[in-house]
Amino acid sequence: MRIDFTSPVAIIILICLLAFYILYAVAQFKLMTKAGEKWWKALIPFYNVFVAHHVVGMSHVWFILEIFCWITEIVLEVFHGIPPVFGLIFAVPTIVITALSEVIYAIKLCDCFGKGIGCKIGTILFTEVFLMIFAYGKAKFKRPDKH
Prior knowledge:
- By secondary structure, this protein is mainly α.
- It is built from six helices and no strands.
- It has one domain (8-136).
């Protein structure tokens, strides 16, 4: 099946996706500034995740685990000849670690904004939408206490 990117529907979808991406990128800038960080830190790949984890009080171990997951995903994509058993051995922990990290980040982010369980569930399920609500809304960011 061939997709026609010149059709009006495809163009409208692409424009909507581009608008959503721009809103999300600006939301990342705003979240960094609400957290007391420089806005440009949201632009640098990998470093933006490190800073986001840091400002919500996540351990650096989670960032290291996510790097391991990113590398694992790249290796699994590049080497298609890997026997399925090895792919499964590496893919399952990667999925679990990534999901856990995202859930913990969402919960800690909601705590920093003083939000309750409903917002935490919403942030876990619809992360990008709730990040934009935090960024463009009036909620104040409070850094977690250091232990």
